[in-house]
Design goal:
eight-stranded antiparallel sheet
Amino acid sequence: MSAQSVATLNEKFGIGTELRFATVADGFNVAVITNSHAAASIAIQGAQILTWTPRREKPVIWLSPGAKFVVGKSVRGGVPVCWPWFGAHASEASFPAHGFARTIPWEVTASQRLKSGATKIAFRLPQTDATRKQWPHSCELELHATLGSTLDIDLITRNTGSAPITIGDALHTYFAVSDVRDISIHGLGGAPYLDKVEDFKRKQQVGPITINQEVDRLYLDTTADCLIDDPRWARRIRVHKHHSRSTVVWNPWLAKAEKLGDMGPNGYLNMVCVESTNAGDDVVTVAPGASHALRVEYSLERLR
Ligand code: TA6
């Protein structure tokens, strides 16, 4: 588990009652954030944001009621970091889906109370012999999160080697919704997509996305904001992104959710993944000495 103990984390990075570190399960440490704008929690494993709830709002980031906190296993929900590949590894079936970044401990490197009252925290992914076996390249990965009335996340890859590296990355975010059957997702109309449910058949989106079955789509060549409209909760979640050329929309629906086993009873009805991604045709090549920063800004708007 994390090389940084909870005591060390609180001593070096704690901020009053606003940012504290705690153990929530055997070997599973989290940062707990409570400021004037929001409440949130982030697992040290995977630098995985688990919850984000702006004041006087329902949760925006969904954490499965059946989530399991097991070292080395990705927690169901929140914002899993997919890196340095998205989905199945291109050639090694034994390598973990979505890369290894989300299942190993990161290090906290900084924390700050901003003038706005938001809380900023930074993590870095330490390289180990195990990661080098799957990813023998010199590079650094950081995640910076600013948690306030909006949620801003930067996932920064730095190529510290002497050869170009090609990565797939994503913020695989689970959003909380009143009932997935009653929402609509706008912004991807006209975009081409690969439909994983139909063997990655290439299709084109017509109009907004509605969900009444398993949906697992990689939208390509799109930099558009995605808007998750939730009339029952009279709100819109805006997903604004930078340096991401693809977006995945996923809901497992009933059968897949039961197979996953950690979605909670009918949990699939209360979530939808809208994942800001670089995958498929849109993977990113980072030149030696250069950086790539995938950035998202999540915000809420009222629906009239
Ligand atoms: O992003 C969609 C997806 O690739 C789905 O195909 C499904 O596998 C989902 O990610 C969850 O993957 P996980 O490895 O977290 O169970």
